[in-house]
Amino acid sequence: NVFFHKTNRFYCHFQIKNLIFHTTFPGSTFEQAKSHPRDVAVLSPEVKTPIPGPKSKELMGHVQNFQNTKALSFFCDFERSKANYLVDADENIILDCFQQISSMPLGYNNTELIAVGKQDNLQNLLINRPAMVTFADMNFPRLVHDSLLRVAPEGLSNVITMGCGSCANENAYKAAFLWYMRDRRGYELPPAEDDEAYSSCVMNQVPGSPKLSMLSFEGGLHGRTLAALSTTHTRPLLKLDMPAFDWPIAPFPKLKYPLEEHESENAKEEARCLAVVEDLITEWSKRAPVAGIVVEPIQAEGGDNHASDDFFRKLRKIALKHSVAFVVDEVQTGVAITGKWWAHEHWGLETPPDIVTFAKKMFIGGYYFNDKVNWKTPSRIGNTWMGDPAKLHLLKKTIEIVKEQRLKDNAQHTGNYLTESLKSLENIHSTALEGSRGRGLFCAVDVNGSRDKVVKEMLQRGVLVGASGPNSIRFRPSLIFTPTHVDIAMDRLDQVLTSVKI
């Protein structure tokens, strides 16, 4: 079946396979699209009120009575939302290219996930939430095998669950420290008669609490718990007034775009950053030895900053050379959005990472790790709930859907189309846009001017995008995003850049 989808400025002709699209043609309504079993619809956004509208503002007033609402954009009607479309409290229908900060792999109200949510086994876990650290559910081993271990990164056969991305990274650092000390000692724990080690650690003193560090990168964001925040180097308001560990910070490559026109310059920039990493590890060996390096495959919050696959291969070799843990933070880049389940799969590493952290689209936080990092003593890492194992039922079904519907391929195909569409807009609005970049659907473009104004005006036209870094717009759509959804988003961005002075 072939048809034409028309937006205000873009005309697209494409083949439909296995997907039925609802359009804004006569007789097609949002309610019809919402109830369609295929879970995919193409509609023009519908904005009835300014966003936030009256109902959202009223709700903000209620919430303001017990907490600060300055970060709230609007309130959502999740019951009415569907697939790539988010409905707010004022019944505005928004094409959501941000998906709850990159957390919704299949969009809103996927019918198969709804069916899973009604199953007795999931509801039983929700009602009788187990203290997983001590009293695990009897079905947990099978559930992990059918979900987490089905998508385990190559070489990482161990996994532990946590509550969120911050918690995942915080505990991954702890695992790196435990391994570092065990590796240097040559055995698991100090002997029981070593009273100095055991008594000093409870008082936060050496030798029981050793002076160690994690090396991170400028522009990285790894969470808001204290250790994770110490490796976060983005917005000042996340860190202001917070005590932080004094740990080494390396520069992350600042690549120039288009990449094919700046190969030599970018290679020199990456070499410079790698040299600094080695220098820092050596420098800090006498101060607070580096136990691990933590890095995002694409720096998300920091500005959608990319580096080449070769950069990460060389970074991995540096970690091996100095016997420090290599921690890859895949909280945002995981779950197929880059065209592979894990973004680090693109790198072609000879030796896998030691630890890979996850959260967001995985429905649960946690990290994978190799046998080298594994610990043998109980209670070294854990908390009461260890995340929420009920969410693994949703992950299990999501893995099946991604495979059956070939959504990794869709992310690559639609992502390429999105990046090329952004480059086309760059040519039209050459003074306003630059630096279009992406891997799969993990895409961004820089705005020369008032980026925040563009994001706001896009929302008023019914398209939700995110901000990253000082001047970037980021796209984090669901895996069921299509080229026609891209056309709608690009049309609205074109409108904004044409009509709004930035």
UniProtKB/TrEMBL annotation:
<protein>
    <recommendedName>
        <fullName>4-aminobutyrate--2-oxoglutarate transaminase</fullName>
        <ecNumber>2.6.1.19</ecNumber>
    </recommendedName>
</protein>
<dbReference type="InterPro" id="IPR015421">
    <property type="entry name" value="PyrdxlP-dep_Trfase_major"/>
</dbReference>
<dbReference type="InterPro" id="IPR005814">
    <property type="entry name" value="Aminotrans_3"/>
</dbReference>
<dbReference type="GO" id="GO:0034386">
    <property type="term" value="F:4-aminobutyrate:2-oxoglutarate transaminase activity"/>
</dbReference>
<keyword id="KW-0663">Pyridoxal phosphate</keyword>
<keyword id="KW-0032">Aminotransferase</keyword>
<dbReference type="GO" id="GO:0009450">
    <property type="term" value="P:gamma-aminobutyric acid catabolic process"/>
</dbReference>
<dbReference type="InterPro" id="IPR015424">
    <property type="entry name" value="PyrdxlP-dep_Trfase"/>
</dbReference>
<dbReference type="GO" id="GO:0005739">
    <property type="term" value="C:mitochondrion"/>
</dbReference>
<keyword id="KW-0808">Transferase</keyword>
<dbReference type="GO" id="GO:0030170">
    <property type="term" value="F:pyridoxal phosphate binding"/>
</dbReference>
<dbReference type="Pfam" id="PF00202">
    <property type="entry name" value="Aminotran_3"/>
</dbReference>
<dbReference type="InterPro" id="IPR015422">
    <property type="entry name" value="PyrdxlP-dep_Trfase_small"/>
</dbReference>
<comment type="similarity">
    <text>Belongs to the class-III pyridoxal-phosphate-dependent aminotransferase family.</text>
</comment>
